[in-house]
UniProtKB/TrEMBL annotation:
The lineage of its organism: Bacteria, Pseudomonadati, Bacteroidota, Flavobacteriia, Flavobacteriales. This is Aminopeptidase. Keywords: Aminopeptidase, Hydrolase, Protease, Signal. InterPro entries: Peptidase_M1_aminopeptidases, Peptidase_M1_dom, Peptidase_M4/M1_CTD_sf. Residues 368-567 form the Peptidase M1 membrane alanine aminopeptidase domain. Pfam families: Peptidase_M1 (PF01433). GO terms for biological process: peptide catabolic process.
């Protein structure tokens, strides 16, 4: 089927110019103005293109750490030697370190209170929480000794969750400073107290599972854009950290299994011969191999060894180090090869028996799938290890992350738990890229790691299973948040501590914005090239928002300032209204045509709505979905869904494939019954966006068109577009695939049957011509005279 369509003969600029004359000063804000001075001025460190400048620099810190885990006292004792390299052009008189564990203390924390109100029912816990003065709960870092490399004491000051070390003399450019810190702290019960690190106790078997995070004094970032990043740690805004090399020794009970950032250097000393043999087998396996078996883990739970073992790990070019320790762990692993750099990575998982039914089946395969998929969209995964640990929470560190996902006691699980677990594993493993490698400042800009990571998580979930029920990424899923009153919203470009609705603001809205850019505004080819360019430019560096914005434009040739201004710096929603359709029947002009592509949409089962990304991914023959190739992943829910579902061919979406082609004036004379339709739109939400239309004709055929966002550039409130069709139009649907996050779809539809428009001036003119023509045929009046022509 080919429909002949005519675009607007008088371009939208003419319509806009008329509106400007009619409403001087009321139509044009600043939605299309360049960001200009909103962004920092480019310099020798950061260029106007978004790339690191010729004089870019960053600091480095190497760590040599020894830790002693006292399981009986639930205490960690540590000593570290830090070698700090000053690569900046500045002389430094002092150094700043983070003592994040102080956030668990009642007297050393950052002191960022929230408003409080009288509870409806007063209980003992409320009274205890409001006691004055606040007593010391015994948590937080206890500093034992801070010295230089020779053992001489260094002067230091602790300010809540930060520590300043005053140097004996200025540390000049190109110099390094070596110092030592000894400390200890009581490990908190993270299930009861919250937080990212601590222990979880399992009363049924009397064992603990330790996740050791933010566990050592760590250097703050000193940068060209901020100086010392020494904002306090409140428990929300995460971390700004320095790259370096780590050597870490963990002294733990002999029956514990340890996983950590980097590679273990002494498996021969800490594993049994059987476990070591299984590990060697896993190094070349294509399927997960149990290195520590379920039976071995159950047996270990019953005996609490008083002997000790030391596990030694090393990691290079990482910004942090985390580890886990427990006798409860089952441990499996397999080798995955990253095609882009031929890097052979050990993908591994650690989990208790409570998670065996899910983690044994899914976790390590999800780890492997994640690092392979992220490598396609960003940079090739550079590290030797990637690990997932079941710890009833979600948090990320270089090469290791903590996730949730436990079965019922009988080993069964629900579809919701399975998909939730997979989403968390993909998300947390994905953080290896954002911010562990592309090392943004989480303490200031949560969206630069959470939002960008959530976006690639969505792409990865899609490539795991086209029916995966992603909650963040598709445009339609952000609508409820965008509908909120303005006093409940903040711009994405807000400091982490000041955001009221952290999840939608830092995760969902940035991810959705990037998906809209990729699918609707830029197109996949332009977007993917620009996004990979950003990842490549800023891998193992410290990017800022301007570096991202500028790179996306620099590598794509698209002016996106309007989008950054509206989506990232503003809170306006998208609400484009299809206000009016005016109908006329001309007999002149050029008729363009459009080639169309049909998409057959399957009936959604796992998803409330089949978004445009899912449809396009199914049509892309180059995309292979992991779930379709792995029989172990195809569990009951997968088979049930595919077995019961049938293709629903009642829905077809016809998407235009290129610019409309105009026909010559002589061709139009061959056309009969051409009808013109002027469609008027208004921007009720405030955020400009492309206008996407689906036309349905009386014969049942469909046609789609997308109008560039630039139609709003001269009038940000109103726009009009005229089409000429050789078939009668039955209805018009605005944004049929819900890909712009339009918050009100009730004003997105027009039908010919509901139209009661008064005849336009052009229709009146045409009717007069017809009447005059009829009169002339009866010998009355010349048609041209009737039309006022001489």
């Amino acid at each position: 089927m080919k429909l002949k369509v005519l675009g607007l003969l008088f371009c939208s600029a003419v319509v806009s110019a008329q509106n400007i004359q009619n409403n001087p000063g009321s139509n044009h804000g600043n939605k299309f103005e360049q960001l200009g001075t909103i962004l920092p001025t480019p310099n020798v460190y950061r260029t106007a293109s978004g790339s690191p400048g010729q004089a870019y620099w960053q600091q480095r810190a190497d760590y040599d750490i020894e830790a002693y885990l006292d399981e009986d006292k639930r205490n960690l004792k540590g000593s570290e030697t830090i070698t700090y390299y000053n690569n900046s052009p500045d002389d430094l008189d002092y150094l700043w370190l983070q003592l994040d564990e102080n956030q668990q203390s009642t007297v050393k924390n950052a002191d960022y209170p929230f408003s409080s109100m009288l509870p409806k029912i007063t209980v003992l816990e409320n009274l205890k929480a409001s006691e004055l003065p606040v007593s010391d709960n015994g948590y937080g870092v206890n500093l034992e000794k801070v010295t230089d490399a020779s053992g001489n004491p260094l002067k230091y000051v602790v300010n809540k969750t930060m520590m300043r070390i005053d140097l004996p003399k200025a540390l000049k450019k190109g110099e390094k400073f070596v110092f030592k810190v000894n400390w200890n702290y009581n490990i908190p019960n993270r299930i009861e107290m919250g937080g990212r690190g601590g222990y979880e106790n399992f009363p049924e078997d009397g064992n603990d599972l330790y996740t050791m995070t933010q566990w050592f004094p760590r250097m703050c970032v000193y940068s060209d854009f901020h100086g010392w990043q020494n904002h306090q740690f409140t428990g929300r805004g995460e971390f700004a950290l320095v790259f370096g090399n780590y050597k870490v020794k963990m002294n733990v009970p002999a029956d514990h299994i340890v996983g950590g950032t980097g590679e273990c250097k002494n498996y021969e000393q800490v594993l049994t011969s059987e476990q070591l043999a299984r590990y060697r087998k896993a190094e070349s396996a294509n399927e997960p191999v149990e290195i520590v078996t379920l039976d071995e883990a159950k047996k270990a739970e019953k005996n609490h060894s008083k002997q000790r073992k030391i596990w030694i790990f090393e990691a290079n070019d990482v910004r942090d180090f985390a580890w886990t320790s427990s006798r409860k762990f089952i441990w499996d692993g397999m080798r995955v090869t990253i095609p882009e750099n031929n890097n052979k990575v050990m993908a591994m998982s650690f989990y208790g028996k409570e998670a065996y039914g899910l983690y044994r089946k899914f976790s390590t395969k999800a780890v492997a799938h994640t690092i392979k998929t992220y490598s396609e969209f960003t940079i090739p995964y550079p590290y030797p290890v990637a690990q997932s640990v079941e710890a009833a929470n979600g948090m990320e560190y270089p090469m290791i992350c903590f996730n949730y996902g436990r079965t019922e006691k009988d080993g069964t699980y629900s579809e919701a738990i399975k998909n939730g677990m997979l989403g968390v594993i993909i998300h947390e493993v994905g953080h290896n890229f954002f911010p562990m490698i592309i090392n943004s400042d989480e303490r200031q800009w949560s969206w630069m790691d959470e939002g960008l990571n959530t976006f690639v998580e969505y792409l990865t979930e899609e490539k795991w299973d086209n029916k995966f029920p992603s909650k963040r990424g598709p445009a339609w899923t952000i609508v409820d948040y965008m509908k909120l009153p303005k006093d409940e919203l903040e711009p994405i470009m807000s400091n982490s501590e000041n955001i009221a609705r952290f999840g939608p603001n830092a995760y969902s809205k940035p991810a959705t914005g990037l998906n809209i850019l990729r699918e609707t505004i830029m197109g996949r080819e332009l977007f993917d090239k620009a996004f990979k360019t950003y990842a490549k430019r800023w891998a193992f560096r410290h990017p800022e928002p301007a570096d991202f914005f500028r790179t996306m434009e620099d590598a794509s040739g698209e002016d996106l300032d309007w989008f950054w201004r509206g989506w990232f710096y503003g809170t306006d929603p998208v609400d484009i209204s299809l206000d009016k359709v005016t109908i006329a029947t001309p007999d002149f002009g050029a008729v363009p045509k459009s080639e169309t592509v049909k998409y057959t949409v399957e009936k959604p089962v796992l998803n409330e709505f089949e978004d445009v990304s899912k449809i396009r991914n199914r049509e892309d023959k180059n995309i292979k979905f992991y779930a379709d190739t792995d029989k172990d992943v195809q569990d009951f829910y997968y088979r049930y869904d595919r077995g019961q579902e049938k293709v629903d061919t009642s829905k077809e979406y016809n998407l235009t494939t290129g610019n409309l082609e105009k026909l010559g004036a002589k061709d139009i004379k061959k056309e009969n019954n051409v009808t013109a339709y002027q469609i008027d739109f208004s921007n009720k939400g405030g955020l400009v966006m492309p206008i996407i239309l689906e036309f349905t004709f009386e014969d049942g055929s469909k046609l789609n068109d997308k109008i560039s966002v630039q139609i709003w550039r001269h009038n940000e409130q109103k726009a009009s577009k005229t089409y000429y069709f050789d078939k009668k139009l039955k209805s018009v649907q605005l944004d049929p695939m819900r890909e712009t996050a339009d918050i009100d779809t009730s004003n997105n539809f027009w039908t010919a049957s509901s139209s009661s428009e008064a005849p336009s001036k052009f229709q009146v003119f045409k009717q007069k011509q017809k009447d005059a023509a009829r009169g002339a045929s009866n010998g009355k009046v010349n048609p041209m005279q009737a039309a006022g022509k001489k």
